[in-house]
């Protein structure tokens, strides 16, 4: 199937060959007919699946920050795409101008914009003025052929929030000048105004850098296969018309020979490939000189290995030669809200992206062999420190000098992308994946441009100024192992080294006469060859077609660190030769020699196209390749290859790859037998042609066939191609939600937008409730009933025990029966002492084990609305854990029951054992007193007295206290909090909490929610206290509502004496200013009668500085913490305010927040 671009070339060639004299420009009617022929059929799919969603996504932040927007559209045709946007976006457009030179289109557009009938409203319903349609082309004054002016000036009224070119740039050259002109027409004060282009051919805009770009490679155009339609269509594509009938007939033939036929000849449709690209620009599009003045440009001669990437013309490629250059790139990208790509070994298709700045890391190619220090927390071991510009071959050769190696891939030229995303090679079964060997890394942060040193980097090799990551140390190292291209620009990694082996390499080539033999041979190879190999062996299989016959090729690598290979005549060797026949070759090589070994396939087809081929690969993980269904798909895949060079490469897994738990590293797919690389190959001279397109389609077709039988996908080289979406969903197994949260936190501006795409939205349950209490109190019973209350209200709820992870690990280590450990009380009791000892020893080695378990539970249940976690320790879990799930609301409910009731329940029911860190069962400080009141050393969110028999009280409790978190009121309130990116400080998503009061009814709604969500008794509250300034907005109307007097806390010096005061550090927002001195706050000494119960109200809880000072102040006027409750409108758990308050001695103060927001 030809692309429109190649069709255009062919049509023009035909006209040139026929020496067509009079080429005429298309009249409006001819243009319109051609356009109609063009847009019929499934061309709409491109709009529906790409243009409308992309445009909606781009416009959403803009409309959220504006009351209305104005749009200028260039060449919309007879109908604007804006009319197909979602309702809430269309309604924001108040002013619409268009340049549409085609008279017919312009008239249609006018009519369409005015068309509304009974049920359907106007396409743009909120226009405040009549649409302004200029029936002239949009031209740039200094390159207009006839000097026509564009007809509008540049007065304030002629500035727009959005300028849109939707398939209208075809005749505009040079295109960058038109974009520059459009940029000048954006509203001046705004930084987020957009120029958006949708275009069908490649789009390179000299000297401009785009804000975002996306592609839709599967776009297609369908044309009715009849003469009339083809005449209009071919003239439209060629860009001119002719009266020469011979040429017209020739054009029809060209269309019919190049298009794919769908339906019956001359009745059906002709299909052409029409890949689509979107590029969006802001005012920052012209900021490149600022970057290139600071960071050296790459040498134009650097060959990017990946041929697909070479089609992507970056805005520029810079080649940093100092760490500060890399930092500057990131800071520049953050400042201008643009993305970057990073070039390592340049083997992937995503290291370059059109109109995006590429950062070539090749200068950072230093390698060192070092012995790790004690500070790394490991036994002394040898590490290889590798710069991000190193290639696999460099590392192996350097390590070999010290008798060592690192498990990497099969080819020497592959770069950092391999070890950061996985790295499967001949040593994987023996030593693990390449990413498993990473023990530390130096990287440039995507939030600040600062240098971060994560994990183990020996101190003398840590760059000056490198700091540990904020709070994400464990997470970041975890993420580097499999998803490491997504969180920062990696400058170097520390890799654990292993003894270097020698390799005995054996090859076989087995011809397969028919499909049945092929399936049987695959099954035999799987079960009796690969399945029997010890872990120092690894067998790669290839399915390929040569000499008109399907073949199974096998390369077996036997590694030995003693130099001795196994004997030829072992029973296994005999079995192998009985299955695979005579060995085709045998050699013994070292690590460098393995790289030198010709790839198995390179000998095929006369040297595999003379080596002049291009390829495209995707990789799935498979188990049981011998199973009939899997083997049949594999065989059918090779049979349907579009070029003779395509093949399947199966790399053996198991061994050390499987030893690591799926959730222990970001590389979440561990339990597989083979990584199946579906390898599409075509002659290099056919790059960009139909043959290349068909081969890539074949790869995705095979992926689609195999995906249901696969147990994961390899994340390396997946990119922002819609066809990769199903693979990404399988790439990281259960780790995907955790990675999404990290991406959200560590690259919030999506600077690394073109690496393996991770979801940008956090994927956590909305409400997480920790159910705590003593053994026998009925935690599981309550959690189960509470979950069902939510389920009855159509919310997805689940109960999970956090202690399961420990039991699982214990069972694996101690050889206990996991099933009985989970479900059989007596068995559990029997193992309790050793289970407790096991947990305690684990926690000594992994101090963040509880957090890890908590996160694993949260992210394995990300699909639910409400998650109940039982089996928790009881130590102020909300204060210690909420920052880990900043986008969720985390609560704890402490379940109580009398000693007698608990004893009865323990005797007759099967209760969870819980996980306790320090104390044995009943002697903890402050657990339950017999009268049913808590005497904990912290204040849980809620306490439920589970003394009564039956589920009624538990369910009523959930209806009264837990369900309201999903109430309409809170949802309404959330919508009133406007979000403003980068306000006050770069990377801060400022939430305008005080802005609630600026909404009609906002203050009333907020105060009524503060009143109803307070779980104490207002009648017993003596005073509502509040701090200047946020508290002053919300506390007074609340105090009026509940009829309680106010106590005001103000800056020192603003209240008349007598007062008491305390020092207060600035808040995290105000501390962002240039000077942020600490200040004092004060309260009237007699403002609160002693012994009163006080509710302290504030707008925000972030770091807790303000609340902490206010609580100290209340203490100074004689109010004990047991008499204070705090209510805030919004909480930002990322700043760990609750933890600070607890550390400062305010753990007993009950804190309630109406809203919870992630981020800063
Ligand atoms: C011929 C060939 C053989 C291969 N053999 C194997 C194999 O044996 N085993 C295996 O597991 N895989 C193999 N692969 C797949 C390979 O791992 C991926 O293509 C990998 O992405 C290549 O990394 P690169 O650095 O060479 O490519 P690049 O295209 O330069 O980088 C790949 C990705 O990593 C990102 N990246 C690179 N450097 C950095 C950095 N410093 N910081 C942050 N992000 C960075 C890039 O932006 C890009 O998204 C092979 C690929 C090819 C083409």
UniProtKB/TrEMBL annotation:
One of its GO terms (molecular function) is oxidoreductase activity. Signal peptide: none annotated. Keywords: FAD, Flavoprotein, Oxidoreductase. The keyword Flavoprotein applies. The keyword Oxidoreductase applies. One of its GO terms (cellular component) is cytoplasm. Residues 1065-1078 have a biased composition (Low complexity). Residues 1059-1080 are annotated as: Disordered. GO terms for biological process: cholesterol biosynthetic process. Pfam families: FAD_binding_4, P-mevalo_kinase, Pribosyltran. Residues 310-500 form the FAD-binding PCMH-type domain. Transmembrane segments: none annotated. Belongs to the oxygen-dependent FAD-linked oxidoreductase family. PANTHER family: BINDING OXIDOREDUCTASE, PUTATIVE (AFU_ORTHOLOGUE AFUA_1G17690)-RELATED, PHOSPHOMEVALONATE KINASE. This is FAD-binding PCMH-type domain-containing protein. It comes from Corynascus novoguineensis.
């Amino acid at each position: 199937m030809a692309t429109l671009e190649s069709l255009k070339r062919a049509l023009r060639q035909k006209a040139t060959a026929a020496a067509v004299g009079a080429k005429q420009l298309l009249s409006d009617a001819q243009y319109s007919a051609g356009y109609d022929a063009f847009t019929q059929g499934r061309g709409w799919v491109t709009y529906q699946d790409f243009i409308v969603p992309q445009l909606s996504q781009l416009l959403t932040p803009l409309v959220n920050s504006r009351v209305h927007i104005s749009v200028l559209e260039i060449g919309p045709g007879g109908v604007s795409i804006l009319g197909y946007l979602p309702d809430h976006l269309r309604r924001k457009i108040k002013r619409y101008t268009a340049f549409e030179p085609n008279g017919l289109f312009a008239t249609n557009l006018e009519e369409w914009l005015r068309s509304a009938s009974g049920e359907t409203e106007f396409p743009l319903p909120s226009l405040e003025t009549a649409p302004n349609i200029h029936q002239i082309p949009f031209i740039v004054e200094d390159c207009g052929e006839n000097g026509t002016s564009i007809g509008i000036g540049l007065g304030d009224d002629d500035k727009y929030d959005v300028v849109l070119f939707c398939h209208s740039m075809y005749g505009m050259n040079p295109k960058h000048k038109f974009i520059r002109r459009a940029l000048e027409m954006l509203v001046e004060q705004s930084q987020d105004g957009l120029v958006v282009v949708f275009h069908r051919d490649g789009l390179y805009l000299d000297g401009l850098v785009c804000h975002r770009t996306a592609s839709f490679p599967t776009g297609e155009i369908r044309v009715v296969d009849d003469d009339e339609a083809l005449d209009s269509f071919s003239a439209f594509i060629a860009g001119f018309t002719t009266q020469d009938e011979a040429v017209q007939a020739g054009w029809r033939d060209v269309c019919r020979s190049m298009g794919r036929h769908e339906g019956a000849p001359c009745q059906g449709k002709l299909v052409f490939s029409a890949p689509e690209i979107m590029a969006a620009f802001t005012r920052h599009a012209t900021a490149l000189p600022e970057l290139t003045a600071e960071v050296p440009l790459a040498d134009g001669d650097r060959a990017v290995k990946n041929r697909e990437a070479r089609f992507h013309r970056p805005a520029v490629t810079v080649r940093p030669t100092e760490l500060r250059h890399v930092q500057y790139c990131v800071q520049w990208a953050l400042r201008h809200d643009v993305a970057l790509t990073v070039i390592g070994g340049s083997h992937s298709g995503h290291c370059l992206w059109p109109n995006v700045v590429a950062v070539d890391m090749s200068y950072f190619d230093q390698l060192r062999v070092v012995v790790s220090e004690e500070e790394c927390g490991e036994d002394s071991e040898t590490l290889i420190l590798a710069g991000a510009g190193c290639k696999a071959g460099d590392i192996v050769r350097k390590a070999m000098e010290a008798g060592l190696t690192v498990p990497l891939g099969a080819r020497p030229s592959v770069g950092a992308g391999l070890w950061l995303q996985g790295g499967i090679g001949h040593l994987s079964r023996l030593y693990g994946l390449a990413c498993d060997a990473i023990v530390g890394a130096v990287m440039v942060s995507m939030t600040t441009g600062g240098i971060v040193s994560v994990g183990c980097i020996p101190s003398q090799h840590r760059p000056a100024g490198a700091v540990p990551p904020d709070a994400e140390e464990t997470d970041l190292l975890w993420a580097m192992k499999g998803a490491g291209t997504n969180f920062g620009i990696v400058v170097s990694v520390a890799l654990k080294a292993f003894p270097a082996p020698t390799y005995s390499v054996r090859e076989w080539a087995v011809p397969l006469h028919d499909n049945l033999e092929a399936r049987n041979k695959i099954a035999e190879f799987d079960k009796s060859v690969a399945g029997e190999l010890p872990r120092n062996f690894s067998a790669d299989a290839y399915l390929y077609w040569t000499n008109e016959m399907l073949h199974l090729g096998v390369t077996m690598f036997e590694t030995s660190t003693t130099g001795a290979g196994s004997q030829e005549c072992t029973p296994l060797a005999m079995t192998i030769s009985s299955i695979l026949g005579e060995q085709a070759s045998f050699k013994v090589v070292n690590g460098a020699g393995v790289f030198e070994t010709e790839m198995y396939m390179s000998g095929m087809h006369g040297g595999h196209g003379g080596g002049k081929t291009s390829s495209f690969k995707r990789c799935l993980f498979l188990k049981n390749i011998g199973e009939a269904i899997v083997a049949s798909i594999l065989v059918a895949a090779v049979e349907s290859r579009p070029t003779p060079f395509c093949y399947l490469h199966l790399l053996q897994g198991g061994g050390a790859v499987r030893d690591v738990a799926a959730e222990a590293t970001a590389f979440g797919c561990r339990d597989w037998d083979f990584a199946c690389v579906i390898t599409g190959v075509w002659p290099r001279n056919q790059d960009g042609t139909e043959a290349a397109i068909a081969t890539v389609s074949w790869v995705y077709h095979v992926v689609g066939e195999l995906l249901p039988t696969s147990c994961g996908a390899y994340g390396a080289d997946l990119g922002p191609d819609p066809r990769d979406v199903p693979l990404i969903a399988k790439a990281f197994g259960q780790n995907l939600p955790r990675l999404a949260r990290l991406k959200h936190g560590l690259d919030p501006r999506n600077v690394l937008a073109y690496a393996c795409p991770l979801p940008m939205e956090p994927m956590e349950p909305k409400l997480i409730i920790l159910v705590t209490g003593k053994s026998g109190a009925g935690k599981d019973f309550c959690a189960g009933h509470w979950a069902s209350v939510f389920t009855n209200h159509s919310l997805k709820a689940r109960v999970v025990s956090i202690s399961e992870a420990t039991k699982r690990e214990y069972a694996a280590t101690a050889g206990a029966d996991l099933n009985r450990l989970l479900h059989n009380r007596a068995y559990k009791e029997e193992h309790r002492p050793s289970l407790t000892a096991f947990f305690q020893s684990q926690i000594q080695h992994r101090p963040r084990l509880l957090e890890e378990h908590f996160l694993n539970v949260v992210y394995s249940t990300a699909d639910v609305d409400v998650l109940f976690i039982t089996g928790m320790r009881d130590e102020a879990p909300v204060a210690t854990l909420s920052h880990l799930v900043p986008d969720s609301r985390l609560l704890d409910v402490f379940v109580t029951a009398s000693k007698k009731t608990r004893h009865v329940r323990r005797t007759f029911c099967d209760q969870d054992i819980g996980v306790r860190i320090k104390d044995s069962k009943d002697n903890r400080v402050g657990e339950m007193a017999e009268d049913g009141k808590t005497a904990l050393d912290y204040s849980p969110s809620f306490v439920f007295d589970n003394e009564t028999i039956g589920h009624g009280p538990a369910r009523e409790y959930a209806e009264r206290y837990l369900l309201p978190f999903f109430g309409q009121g809170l949802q309404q309130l959330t919508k009133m909090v406007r979000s403003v990116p980068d306000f006050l400080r770069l990377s801060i998503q400022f939430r305008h909490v005080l802005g609630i009061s600026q909404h009609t009814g906002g203050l009333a709604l907020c105060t009524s929610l503060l009143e109803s969500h307070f779980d104490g008794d207002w009648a017993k509250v003596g005073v509502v206290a509040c701090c200047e300034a946020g508290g002053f907005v919300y506390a007074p109307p609340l105090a009026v509502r509940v009829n309680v007097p106010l106590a005001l806390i103000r800056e020192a010096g603003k209240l008349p004496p007598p007062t008491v005061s305390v020092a207060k550090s600035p808040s995290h927002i105000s501390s962002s200013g240039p000077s942020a001195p600490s200040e004092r706050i004060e309260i009237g000494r007699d403002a609160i009668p002693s012994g009163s119960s006080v509710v302290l109200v504030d707008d925000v809880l972030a770091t807790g500085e303000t609340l902490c000072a206010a609580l100290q102040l209340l203490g100074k006027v004689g109010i004990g913490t047991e008499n204070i409750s705090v209510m805030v409108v919004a909480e930002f758990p990322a700043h760990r305010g609750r933890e600070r308050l607890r550390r400062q001695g305010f753990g007993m103060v009950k804190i309630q927040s109406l809203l919870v927001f992630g981020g800063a």
